[in-house]
Amino acid sequence: MNTVIETILNHRSVRSFEDRRLTKEQIEQIVSSAQAASTSSFIQAYSIIGVDDPDKKKKLSELAGNQSYVEENGHFFVFCADLYRHELIGRMENKDVEETLESTEKFMVALIDASLAAQNAAIAAESMGLGICYIGGIRNHLEEVCNLLKTPKRVIPLFGIAVGYPSKIVDQKPRLPLQHVYHENEYQQNEEEYINQLNEYNKTISEYYEARTAGQRSDTWTNQMGNMLERKTRMYMKEFVEGVNFNKR
Amino acid sequence: MNTVIETILNHRSVRSFEDRRLTKEQIEQIVSSAQAASTSSFIQAYSIIGVDDPDKKKKLSELAGNQSYVEENGHFFVFCADLYRHELIGRMENKDVEETLESTEKFMVALIDASLAAQNAAIAAESMGLGICYIGGIRNHLEEVCNLLKTPKRVIPLFGIAVGYPSKIVDQKPRLPLQHVYHENEYQQNEEEYINQLNEYNKTISEYYEARTAGQRSDTWTNQMGNMLERKTRMYMKEFVEGVNFNKR
Fold first, then answer.
1. Where does A51-152 have alpha helices with state H?
2. Which of A8, A99, A102, B154 is the most buried (most CB within 10 A)?
3. Contacts for A69 with CB less than 8 Å, ≥ 6 apart
4. Among B74, B50, B115, B105, CA closest to A138
């Protein structure tokens, strides 16, 4: 196993950081790494907002559900789907690009582009000995986040990444069995086998929680997922993304 | 600069591969790397289909617009947004999860999850000396791709990654200037400066194409983007994703 794969396999979310800011050089290496990712037809449909301002970080932390590590970290990156520059390009080049920009296809392209870039940033940061945590919680209140970060229409802040020097390292969470996620040549739609695999995985996860909490937490993955998915959260999203001119047609 | 960041910054798409298949061990390292990526609230909302069957690869290549490297490579991975297993979980746990699974929010979660996993896979493959190319072309005809790969509802094949031993290495395409993509504390919505940056970048891209094609191709980035975005492609996507029960509410 090479060092790159070691770095990738060693990932765990870090939620507790030292009080130490990233340097300009570190930030630039992380952003350059993000930009090196593949991009659909060279479209580069994303932007990154680095948040360092203490008031803004505090506000973001509140909006994300009072997660302290959104405020207390070495640097906070917000990854955005971005077709605003492509709207400008339409005007510069005198081309009618509106229908395309508002299509579900380009919504997908922008989400995928931003995510590929973000994962490069995450791996780059981890390779420097930094810890990271993705923050989907910024999608709890996107209108307020957009106001705070002054994003124009055709830009959606998708998630944050808190980066910094780890002050506490936790265990890795075991993933679904490889055979459950990886299919050969076609999707193995065998419901019985699928449920058997999930039951097996439930045992792994129960053991993980029990060991981690010294017997305090007893939970399975399917129970955790069932409870989470039963709650209807962020149901405003469809209207919101259409309101900023994505995913409309 | 460490080896991980070197690997990341050295990325270029490879579209020509030796006739040499990946080993089972290589495939498993790539898939395990994908699974190590962060996942929103531990939801693991993706699947990977590894395609090795020559007939299926040939068919996929045709569907993706006759891209030979979809057929001729060491292994072809299809990354899918997947909430099918979460539908099963709803039944296993007797929870009503339908509204959540059909929300735009969970459509975004599944796209982001699949993309983070894919980029880990891409970096892992590149770290082994393999080349990769993302294939968005499978979205040209998704219904046929779904039939070929036998995916159930709540699964969307998003893109492929062709992986293999490179037989031809091309130059890297220069990315947008860092300051154009990276904003500090808030989105720098200064249209004039934005357009200046795009004009600067156009010069870089013109020089790149001229050097690469010995003067044969003269193009700018904004012209290329304007032409691409004027064409209305994959406009069936909204209806398609709703038809497989994503992005409906």
1. 54-63, 68-71, 84-93, 98-101, 104-127, 142-149
2. A8
3. A14, A15, A16, A17, A133, A162
4. B105
Is pLDDT at B215 greater than 90 in this prediction?
A: no
Mutate to test the interface with A, among B186, B205, B231 (most CBs of A within 10 A): B186
Asked if residue A218 has pLDDT above 90, the reply is no
Neighbour tally for A222: CB within 10 Å: 22
Flag if A89 and B226 touch (Cβ within 8 Å).
Answer: yes
Instruction: Choose the closest CB to A120 out of B8, B89, B128.
Output: B8
Nearest Cα of chain B lies from the Cα of A153 at a distance, in angstroms, of 11
Asked if residue A215 has pLDDT above 90, the reply is: no
Nearest to A104 among B1, B195, B241 (CB): B241
Other CB atoms within 10 A of residue A55 CB: 9
Helix and strand totals (H; E) in chain A: 12, 5
How long a stretch of residues is chain A?
Answer: 249
Nearest CB neighbour to A93, from listed B1, B191, B226 = B226
Q: Cβ separation of A7 and B8 shorter than 8 Å?
A: no
Backbone angles phi, psi at A33, to 5 degrees: -65, -45
pLDDT reported for residue B214: 86
Structural domains in chain A, CATH included, are 3-170+233-243 (3.40.109.10), 178-218 (no CATH)
Q: Distance between the two ends of chain A, CA-based, in angstroms?
A: 46
Rounded Cα–Cα distance for residues B185 and B75 (Å): 42
Distance (Å, whole) CA B201 – CA A152: 22
Residue A23 has pLDDT above 90, yes or no: yes
User: Is the per-residue pLDDT at A220 higher than 90?
Assistant: yes
Q: Which of B21-25, B82-86, B151-155, B166-170 has the lowest mean pLDDT?
A: B166-170
